[in-house]
Amino acid sequence: MAEAATEKASPTDHTAEHADDPSAPSHTGHPSDWEYIKVAIFLAIVTAAEVALYYVEGLGARLVLLILCVMMVVKFAIVAMWFMHLRFDSKIFRRFFITGILLAFGVYLIVLTTFGVWSRPGEHTPVSPSPPTTTARPG
Amino acid sequence: MSGRRHRLLKCSGVVLLLLFLVACGSKKTPQNSLSPAGEYARTIDNLIDPVFIVAAVVFVLVEGLALLFVIRYRQRPGPEPVQVHGNTRLEVGWTLVPFLILVTIAVPTIITIFKLADEPPNAVNVTVIGHQWWWEYRYDDLGIVSANELHLPVGRPVQLKLQSVDVIHSYWVPRLNGKTDVVPGRTNHSKLKAERPGTYIGQCTEFCGLSHANMRNRAVAQTPADFDAWVKGQQQAAVAPAANTDAATGMTLFTSKGCTGCHTVQGLSKGAVGPNLTHLYSRSTFAGSMFDLNATELRKWLHDPPGVKPGSKMPNLNLSADEIQKLIAYLETLK
Amino acid sequence: MTVTHDEESTPTTTTEGSHDELAPEHPPTSTGLSNEKLAMWAFLGSECLLFGALISVYLLFRGRSAPGTITPKDVYDIPYTSVSAFVLLMSSLTMVLALANHQRGDFRRFRVWILTTALLGAAFVGGQMYEFTVFYEKGLKLSTNLFGSSFFVLTGFHGVHVFLGILMLMSLFTLSLKGRIPESRSEVIELGGLYWHFVDIVWIIIFTLVYLVP
Amino acid sequence: MTITTDPPRTAVAPEDAPPRLLRRPSGYAHGLWGWLTTVDHKKIGIMYGVTAFIFFILGGLEAMLLRIQLGSPESTFLSADTYNQVFTMHGTTMIFLVVMPLSAGLANYLIPLMIGARDVAFPRLNAFGYWVFLVGGLFMYTSFIFGGAPNGGWFGYPPNTLKAFSPGHNIDYWVFGLQILGIASLTGAINLIVTTLNMRAPGMSLFRMPIFVWMSVIAQFLLLFAIPVITVALFLLMFDRQFGANFFNAQAGSDPLLWQHLFWLFGHPEVYILILPAMGVVSEILPVFTRKPLFGYQVMVFSGIAIAFMGWGVWAHHMFVSGIGPVATSAFAASTMLIAVPTGVKIFNWLATMWRGQIRTKVPFLFAVGFVTMFTIGGLSGVTHGVVPADTQQTDTYYVVAHFHYVLFGGSMFGLFAGAYYWYPKLTNKLLNEKLGKLHFWLMLIGFNLTFGPMHLLGLWGMPRRVYTYPSGRGWDFWNLMSTVGSFLIAISILVFIVNMIKTRKAGPAGDDPWDARTLEWTTSSPPPEYNFAVVPLVTARDDLWHRKYTEDEHGRAIPRVTSEEHDADKEADTDDDRVISAAATEGTGTIDATVDGGTDSAKDGEVDEGHDDEDRSDEAVHPVPTAHDLHIHMPSPSYWPLFTAIGLAVVAYGMIYRVWIVAILGGIWILTGIYAWGMEPSAEPEAEGGQHVPVDEPDQPADDDPDAPGPGSPELEPVGS
Ligand code: HEA
Ligand code: HEA
Ligand code: CUA
Ligand SMILES: [Cu+2]
After folding, report:
1. Is D197 in the pocket of ligand 1 (CB under 6 A)?
2. ipTM of the assembly?
3. B180 — contact with chain D (CB < 8 Å)?
4. CA–CA separation, B9 vs B57, rounded Å?
5. Please, which residues have CB within 8 angstroms of residue C187's CB and are 6 or more apart in sequence?
6. Per-residue pLDDT tens for C202-212?
7. What is the pLDDT of residues D499-524, one digit of tens each?
8. Which residues of D touch B82 (CB under 8 A)?
């Protein structure tokens, strides 16, 4: 019964989905070229750091992995938010993209986990089927 | 309301009866997964039955209501119906109730999963190797290699290491345990246990090509004594037949025709493509338990294996009737 | 699903105007978003699962290759790849500059930048082809081992995406030369840009997870 | 969507217009070319439906072969190899060439009508989607001619499908065929998503959309994210088969389970893609024939969304016995069972919709109830699958076959048949014969249960699936025979349906709203004009049409709004044309301002609504229907390029399969040519060239101040878009 009211309510309800506010159109409020360049410089520095890290000896593999992933995510986010304007653009776009990313991340993470790739990172030894091509063992 | 409960009870009674029918008669249905003959299968069965009952109740409820409403509320004189748009309490209700029901199913399920996963103590270890389209068994610590018919002692668990040399198969003896896929590149594990002596049949259940339907297997449960006897027998080498008998010529043919290239006859050959024939006649069936083991079937087989078993990896060797006769004579000595 | 909040919805008073006034900034769609851009973002969302799968396959096969066959260590040339990664990264900058210039109607600069972007992209693809041949000579083929299969397929897929992107940029360039992309249509550029940046983003991940991770 | 009265825009200046390879069909082309070049979502929807039904006959005939073979033990009716091809093609056909396209067809036809749009967001992309589907389907079926159809099962597990074990081209056809079909689904998904989000009529907020639109668009989202996964899987398999890669080669240290994960990661969302539209259909039909609104609309929407989300977390329930370990199986068992909850909510809400209704037991209703009851059975067996230890007994037996036929046939097909009977009058202005319809229903219901009910027993009694033969003495003989008998009943019932359609050709006009329905598609004429609505409707409520016709008295009972005879007049569909059209015209000019502003909201306030309510409520009664031209409605022009481009895909595929690289390359060039020409031709020809008007907000339309700007179909977008 509760819904009876809302269902025939004045049209101004249920207009919720109009996510994009045209009064903040996607083309306004964009950074200036200079800002873009600053962003790019930052990205370049991070990349350099990544490569440098590759040559650094001594740190544990896991630590390196961690740092690399952090830097990767940072770069990813910056390009998406500034160059792809997600920062300024409609929520809907962001939702589409983020849904894709999270979904991909989630499911593939589970897949990899079921294969136990985290257990011994790197040196996984595949089970070789003991093919009876090796002559059958007599008693 | 009470009327409905009444009907509900009646119907679930009917369903239980049906369940009984399904379970009964393992004579008529030797591959029946609902007539367990071993601990593990029984564990599963004990889990299925209550689940089926829950399902039956839900079934009766839903179908009953559907029927009731369709009949009760068919178009009838009178005003238009009241426009009901929903009822939050009800909807929350029939979200929660199924949820709770499912939780009560999930808990025992997960417990059983782990119960069935752990390795049994003092088990007979057998490596089961899937081939297109037959099964090879290796009792590694007993030094036995056999095919298609798995022997196991009653009351003692058998731990299976499952491997494949070609495609994915699935090993299944319904009355002893559920199935487990046999995946090339990995080793899967399963286990069997029989309560009573007897022959329990099964077959490959993962589509594995042309003769998937003909890739069958048996589990022969024996009293410990019989089992030990069988083990002794299997561990013997083959005895060469007495000179200038048919069997003897058969044996020479067995080499000259290249059988040795694929088959192991212990003491004679070390072929590994086909089943080990050393104790062929200790088995009751052959070629993936497709045929009963006897001269007539063997004759058909040797005449044209792929002809009688589509795609069989044993080629047609164009043997003459006479050669076949001799070969069979030889094979019959492989007790 | 996109169910959002009232306060964002258009005030009923706005734009009593004719179409010319509101084109193209707010297409007269229910969301006020242009169909093309929505479609592009949907497509990019879908692409995430495509590359996600390929990358996961590569990670899954890390170190699973048959023993004694070529490993990443044997073939990777990090300094070289770093340069091409840098090149692609910068192409994102030039792309966004191209768009910015187009939006403010500076078509000459726009063409300069978009051409640079295409060139940088071409440099990247060329570099990748060279890398492939080097690996090939070192004996790494698609069929050599799991590493070969997953590496070539993953990076190859990405390469193809870049290549398509270049075709796209070039046609934008020529169209603009013919004066067929006025300021009002700069969204077309934006769409091309979105795709281009996405390809760049993917490489950011590949570079780290495939090349750098020990 | 609006009517515009301003003069046609200036044509593409010839000089910078690209050379036309083919003369573009002008206007709303009719006859064969009309169909080959159409971009009208209704025509495309019909083509989807017809094609899919023909494939259903094919898939069904294949099924009959299976049943005949299995009718008796040791049967030699089919050889092992033939049997494997037949069951593989049966499964592949039914899933990818029947249920998916039938749902796509319904969505194509109905979504724009239901949300009050005049077309989809990308009409040519829409046509492209259909042609790609057709090409993909035909391509796969040519394998029967060229030496053997796919024979690896509909989920083609490697290593069995690798060259080593399937040396022929059978599997190649499957790989490339599915790859092509994937393109069709992806373009379709993007198109329908954008359409639903962007093309709604004023006032049609998301939560006023008919449930069918909701469920369809949710399914499209699932496609959007699931297709790339199988695309990758198929690519890997292709690289293994064609170029000797090692992705599924155990000897090289790979793990065949990789395929299973990728396939079912697609495969399980896929099964909800197959059921959600049918659920939407049922949710539309039950209210109409019970004369009550859908019980718990919001909950229905959210449970649909919940199912879609959960559908991503259960794939490994197809791998319970493949050795993924107790932890994983437990987790997936739990998630699998959880999915029963939102689905159950739907079932109970449907029941509650019937509760205390005034039920008209017309054929569409019967099929809808058939869905509810049969799907429940399939769902329950699904839950028993979720009980892992039980599943180790059931998997790959006929118990699974029973499960998925109860959900796919008892669910999807019953739902789609319900939809067929329900919307047939809208497509053709003819009502299907009730008697034959009821005969069809009962025959199908009985035959269906006789066919698939026994399979539960067979499975539990240990009969594996995908066996071309079985020995007698397993206790399977009798029920297999029964199942075969049942399948013939189904076949007969389908024949009855075909007969019904043939008989109905002579039936009288059904009228625009024969069921006294609730949603917008029934406000326009039957069949709808190419532009769907002379006046873009102004939506003021969920089930808008119902609220135009009825209101509620103090007890909440429905009472007619308009006086009864006026009401009848509507239904008999005879009103004075001129009056309505002129009304339409004024209405139209009126609506422009309301609609073209960024949001559709401005149109949504009380008094517009009142004004609208009393005015032409009878616009569905316009006969004969005026053309778009009369009303100055711009519609997109037909185009050859979608068809042209689609054909290129098959060329590439053949080239790849037979390793004639030159052919593959030519195919690629063919496709690029198509895309380029497509991009260079404006979506709508300006009138000057004998083309049609374009609605001002028709998406593909070049912006006013720049007639030459490439539309979304321009080369820089198409490689991406499709
Ligand atoms: C339309 C397609 C469709 C749908 C909707 C479903 C729905 C479900 N499926 Fe099904 N499934 C398939 C199509 C579908 N399936 C196909 C094609 C296969 C075989 C693939 C192959 O191997 O070839 C398959 C296989 C399959 C398996 C693998 C079996 C095996 O191979 O071993 C499993 C295992 O868990 C499963 C589970 C489920 C579950 C839990 C649901 C749930 O969504 C069902 C939920 C519905 C209900 C439960 C009924 C209504 C609910 C209530 C009335 C509430 C009260 C209920 C309870 C409290 C229990 N399905
Ligand atoms: C929507 C999906 C769908 C539908 C509707 C059907 C419909 C049917 N299926 Fe289907 N089936 C599958 C999906 C479907 N199936 C899938 C996915 C598989 C798994 C494949 C695999 O293992 O890989 C499968 C497997 C499968 C098997 C198991 C094969 C095996 O494992 O060995 C069997 C066996 O009986 C079977 C039977 C049937 C039957 C009898 C019908 C009947 O309902 C068909 C009835 C329809 C008709 C009969 C229409 C034909 C019309 C006429 C004949 C009228 C005459 C017209 C003219 C002559 C012009 N199917
Ligand atoms: Cu082995 Cu099926
Ligand atoms: Cu599933």
Report:
1. no
2. 0.91
3. yes
4. 8
5. C24, C34, C36, C37
6. 999 999 999 99
7. 999 999 888 888 899 999 999 999 99
8. 292, 356, 555-557
